[in-house]
Write a structure and sequence with these properties.
This protein is an all-alpha fold and 298 residues long. It is 52% helix and 3% strand.
Amino acid sequence: MDRGPLFRRKTSISYKTEEKTVMRGYDLSELAEEGYSFCDALFVLYQNRIPTENEEKMLKYEMGVFMEHSMSPSAVAAIGVSAGRPNLPCAVAAAITTFGGVHGPGAAHGYMMNKYLERAQKEGKTLDEMAKTLVDEYMDAKKPVMGMGQPQHIDSDPRAEPIHVKHEELELTGVYLEFQRAVEKHFHARRKKEGRSYVGVNVVGAGNAALTEIGFAPNAAWCLGSVCRGFSCAAHALFNMKKGRAWGASRNEPMVQMIDLSMIKYIGPEDREVPTQDERQEYARKQKEEGEYKKWVI
């Protein structure tokens, strides 16, 4: 009997033997032993290269700030699906499927940026000129400019500008940040001219500008954001499974619109200062000793 494979395929991602798993030529265990982080490994996985220290810091910052966003469509989906008590991956998968044009990481912003940057080259326009063209074309067509506006952070997305600042601090600025800044400038000018309210850049606009600057394609950036937010969605589902009632309904729990922030009662730890890295070891030791954190473990 022929025991050969029914079909053959090629991959440049990884291979494994009885002794090791190799990703893009690097033994994963050796990467870990040498102190390379999860974010370092993501560069190897998606870009086939080990990043510079500042590139790794940028990705780590972006993933950290994007991981959790309280009540949003993905969190609501995770909570809603978990109410029926399926296996946990069902709730996480449902949450991630909510990512689209107006929620989640989104690849549309990156594709928009690349399209107009290519046009700038072909048409011999400066980045500033092409940014104005982008804004005018989108707004004339009554289409939302990707990367601008956030429905819950009405005044401005508090995550966005710090990402720009970190992008600059790490000296990773290039064509994408310059173009994104120009888009924001012309977007604000157009809305002001039309007598409309201020709408700031959102985490996708700032975050994708940084991710593309350090080499991630739009779909790769979407994948990173989806996996990153997936941890948060899993936590929301776990909390509901552990602390909530099945179906999330009883005579003591009125039916409410979960995404309305005015209806959300936060019952977690009080606001607290983030310790510096110098304080980290002692801070973590005290937390473990005091044990208060155990109340919130899911």
